[in-house]
Amino acid sequence: MQQLQMTSALARDMRFAGLLYLVIIVAGLSAELLLRGPLIDLEDANATAAAILSAPGQFRLAIAADLVMAVCDAGLAILLFLTFRSMAPRLALGAMVFRLIQTVLIAVSLMGLLTGWLLLSRADMLADAPRLALVFFDLHAHGYDLGLVFFGINSLILGLLVWRSGLFARVFGVGLTIAGLVYLAGSGLRFFAPELAPAFAPAYALTFLAETAFCLRLLLQISAGHKVSRRREIAP
């Protein structure tokens, strides 16, 4: 009876983790591609200022979506730790820490967007407000990529946990590992070879496929038949 309660709780946590993951994917993509992306052109300060000032609600909604994503990411980090801690406590703790660092960095980088907005909203007081605002928008983008360095490490650890767990098909672990490598490579290019970053951008489709597949797998978790003893057998 005790084993059944524990495995039922595990399945429930996994489904909740899948729900949070889904919110993260939808909120993150919406903020970046649908809401903020059409407004910000890092090559044209005046056009960016005009676009944001003509659609302030859209810009604020992008910030709100990123904030929702960060809050859900913190919850997901905890739930994934609870899922894997009995199997490999050190790896599970490491994955949680790296994901939480990513969450903090992305949340803090929102200050770049807020600062840019404050500059534009007070442009009558600052003659060079559009250019200054664009610097802060660029700072936000770099802060986001810095967070993805830690998320890439998290994805590598999570891929290993999924591979070893016995709770998921190993293909999910492979996908998360590939996603981690893409995140690390993409962020590395952003900081050290930015001229190559646009050519590498299509590789992020792999991260979308891997994370969406794992998200759906968590959401569709219905089995409570995995024994706690089985999970303990593979703990390091």
TrEMBL record:
Keyword list, A-Z: Membrane, Transmembrane, Transmembrane helix
Keyword 4Fe-4S: no
Ranges annotated as spanning the membrane: 20-39, 59-84, 96-120, 146-164, 171-193, 199-220
Highest taxon above the source species: Bacteria
Coiled-coil ranges (or none): none
The protein's name in its UniProt record: DUF4386 domain-containing protein
Species for this entry: Ruegeria marisrubri
Taxonomic classification: Bacteria, Pseudomonadati, Pseudomonadota, Alphaproteobacteria, Rhodobacterales
